[in-house]
């Protein structure tokens, strides 16, 4: 198996992005200036992946494609996450006192090959704990009388996989919708969370446990028909404030978002959606106004995919901007939902169920750039740009120039002129 060091990866990335600089064209002029007097902040961001039922251990995966995929993904990720039941693993606790660990064991055996720290999402629950009695009713939650049982199951999971030190409690408030209130039942979720947190900490106080995992729905578009004007809507802020006040403890807070929320029925062009990538920065700052917990993006999504008429270039430049704003917003971890093409538009590698699958996609290169050049511990310098659709993420040694415009630009930056095509990004050296 081929393994690349960070320096080898960086060399490859610089070689790849330098091909763009060889093209000469007259683009729209943009000026980006750096304030070198002092850093604006120190990056906290580390990017990783969540394995799902469509990940690299899919039952129909081709071995050679899996090898290629792992060789592409392994050098660029800092974390990897799996759920305990569903999204791959079968029911680990089919009846009280009975445990069947085979499929979850197999998942962990597979992800050892990625050589990145593991995270466990404590979701979903066995059917015997749920209100409808069905394990694969994925949107259901445990009955309140089984909250303690789920907490004890969480401890059994922690005992079986002692190498895992980080746990997310539940997924997207599944089953916690209160029909009578027409709102998320944050009070009941917090009761559930507190039982799981307390049980895990009693087992091992050094474990890192976080939760909430709410889908934040505001786009910032100010369109009519739905509350879109704020990244965190007022009705959602109440949920944050309640959980923050009433949790018994937390080592991090989880959130989830796509640029355009499912409930927002407005139609947006790709260019309009690219204007809302800063919501990841605004959400980070809004959360840190309420608490000082590290912010984990348990899931995060861009501007759509081919079905929405979005090109690969538009999709990838959206994530370049998203990562820029995640860093500027003080966010700590981003877990990309499924790295394999087929389930989502934002994949890192092509479908591993085909003989020639597992090939890296542009997002792989981008994630490597972020984790290698701008990841946790990197000083980030403030910039000003004459065009809001042209951004720069700047460290002491590198700059990631991002053109979200639908036309080429020529950027005056660092005493040089850099040509960048429409919907493209480029890593350049500051030396």
What is the helix/strand order?
Answer: HEEEHEHEHEEEHEHEHHEHEHEEEEEEE
If strands are numbered along the chain, what order do they take across the biggest sheet? 3-4-5-6-9-10-11-12
CATH topology: TIM Barrel
- Compute the number of structural domains: 1
Largest sheet: 8 strands, parallel, barrel
Span between termini: 34 Å
Portion in beta strands: 15-25%
CATH class: Alpha Beta
Give the helix level as a range of percent. Answer: 25-40%
Total DSSP helices: 10
How large is the radius of gyration? 22 Å
List low-pLDDT spans. Answer: 15-23
DSSP E strands, number: 19
The coarse silhouette is globular
CATH superfamily label: Glycosidases
What integer is the average pLDDT? 93
Q: Please name the CATH architecture.
A: Alpha-Beta Barrel
Structural class: alpha/beta
Characteristic key phrases:
TIM Barrel, 431 residues, alpha/beta, 8-stranded parallel beta barrel
Q: Describe it for me?
A:
The protein is α/β, with parallel strands linked by helices and 431 residues long. Helix content is 30%, strand content 21%. It is built from ten helices and 19 strands. The protein has helices at 6-21, 63-73, 102-111, 147-160, 186-203, 234-246, 270-274, 279-290, 312-328, 362-373, and strands at 28-34, 41-42, 46-50, 79-83, 118-122, 166-169, 177-178, 183-184, 208-215, 252-258, 295-301, 333-337, 379-380, 383-385, 390-394, 398-403, 409-413, 416-420, 424-429. The strands form five sheets. An eight-stranded parallel β-barrel has the order 3-4-5-6-9-10-11-12. A hairpin with a 3-residue loop joins strand 15 and strand 16. Helix 8 packs parallel to helix 9. The relative contact order is 0.17. The model is unreliable at 15-23 (pLDDT under 50).
